Amino acid sequence: MPRVFSGIQPTGDPHIGNYFGAMKNYVRLGEEYGKNSIYCVVDLHAPTNPGAYDPARLAARTFEMALANMAVGLDPQKVIFFAQSHVPEHTELAWLFTVITPVGELERMTQYKDKAGQLESVPAGLLMYPVLQAADILLYKADTVPVGEDQVQHIELTREIARKFNHAFGETFPEPRAVLAKDALRIPGVDGQGKMSKSKGNTLGILEGFDSIWQKLRVAPTDPARVRRTDPGDPDKCLIGDYHKLFSDLPTIETVYVGCRTAGIGCVDCKKMLMEGIRRELTPVQERAAELQADPDRVRDALATGAREAREIAVPVMEEARERVGF
Ligand code: ADP
Ligand code: NA
Questions:
Q1: What is the maximum span of the chain, computed from C-alpha positions, in angstroms?
Q2: Containing structural domain, residue 130
Q3: Is 278:210 a contact under the CB 8 Å cutoff?
Q4: Ligand number, closest to the Cα atom of 195
Q5: Which family is annotated (predicted)?
Q6: 210 in a domain, yes or no?
Q7: Is-contact 20 203, C-beta < 8 A?
Q8: Which of 2, 181, 195, 316 is 20 to 30 A off residue 324, Cα-Cα?
């Protein structure tokens, strides 16, 4: 059976892009692969991003991200779910990998170049980020890594690291493959300016209050060709049309698409119908989140158990790697 690994950044406040693009996928894969699906809140990576990292908030962010994933339906009893910093083998394996990873390869990584380009002084950790990521995956001998397109280059490097290690020290690690979300979902931001992203401040949070979500939707742009209520519109050129496909049932989508094209319904009505779908989808998530917030030990205990389960795999693999290298 394949073994799936995915890292979750402890950024807190997940949005509907994260939800449809990643979190729901984790739940689905968890149903399929059980304890062979490993989800790690990758808190050790956080300090490489000085802009978004606050030491006073890191532990809370890790907790919040774990809670959010559990609220969405990730079941820590079914999968292995833990925080990276609770399993010290990640950093130890990363060190072994640094000795076989060419600096030139790391300097070629697009994400590194983008981030380093904005910094006056570049921390070595930023350069080493993909080495730690390779260790995250290979520590579990995972062969299947669900990621977004921006991570494909890092997974290629992980394959190369596995290959080099096996070549230098003997067959030890599989060469994992990146699995892209089937429909390569790219949820647009509520400002209509491209992809939804935390850094762009154009998000609808999955745990955000419905009043707040509505205030954002109310002023969200629609098809610019539809100036007056009596003008027909094109729902395929409208952000609200895109969102309906995520949140609404088929009859509603049909009503909205026909109504927009014939000027039968106005944009405000269309947004109100979307709001119903959002409520239906997110109410159970928000209710579960409230339950977990009221009982935070459930989240902490889940992560502690998850770390023990992770180490049952990680410790022997680390021992094997250590021996191979000669320790
Ligand atoms: P952000 O861009 O808000 O910082 P991350 O980069 O932390 O989000 O992404 C976390 C996960 O959510 C990744 O798997 C990523 O592919 C997915 N994701 C993020 N934004 C979107 C989006 N707008 N549409 C689809 N998936 C997304
Ligand atoms: Na991003």
A1: 76
A2: 4-187+296-325
A3: yes
A4: 1
A5: Belongs to the class-I aminoacyl-tRNA synthetase family.
A6: yes
A7: no
A8: 2
